[in-house]
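Checklist before submission:
- one chain only
- standard amino acids only
- sequence pasted in full

Submission:
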Amino acid sequence: MYPDFTDKAKIALVHAEKVVKQLKAGYIGSEHILVGLIREKTGVAALVLKDNHVEESRLLELIREAIAPQTGLLSKERKEYSVK
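Returned file contents:
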């Protein structure tokens, strides 16, 4: 799937894809990759994030707050409207 990537990078991207499905996002963004790096646990990025007290649960919470799900749009008042 990602032939030129390291095994750890491939694992992080697989985790990122799972986050995208979990959050019902329509794309893999840097925020999803960040969660994937945390979930990979053994790479340099995961260790740096851990050393800086970046927690997966808090990161997911921030992503949910900041990004509208693919199924709807948010107004400035943060009310969700269906897309038809």
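Reviewer check: The first helix runs from residue 7 to 23.
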